[in-house]
């Protein structure tokens, strides 16, 4: 996760053009906290963890990510993580970044 544009730009510069995919997971803080099996958000809120993105360290949304995954559906209900993963895999397959027999098929 890169919380600042400069960090995302640095990561993009490490790869050849077309090989870096910026993914923005649009997830309200409450969803992140609900899906936190290690309890890191709770520790950050209690002050045990410092510099935790979204709590005491700001997160700047990307301005032009290649992929936006919404953690909630149109009605506001949480989407299952598996559905979000499949959406990302489909995109990666569509743009030719996945290879092998299990890769999603590319449109003709």
From TrEMBL:
Which EC class, in a word?
transferase
What UniProt keywords apply to this chain's record, in alphabetical order? Kinase, Transferase
- The entry's protein name is Adenylylsulfate kinase
Native organism: Monoraphidium neglectum
Family matches, as Pfam families: APS_kinase
Q: Name one GO molecular function term.
A: sulfate adenylyltransferase (ATP) activity
Start and end residues of each APS kinase domain: 5-70
Q: What is its EC number?
A: 2.7.1.25
Q: By its UniProt entry, which PANTHER family does this protein fall under? A: BIFUNCTIONAL SAT_APS KINASE-RELATED, SULFATE ADENYLYLTRANSFERASE
Q: Which residues form a coiled coil?
A: none
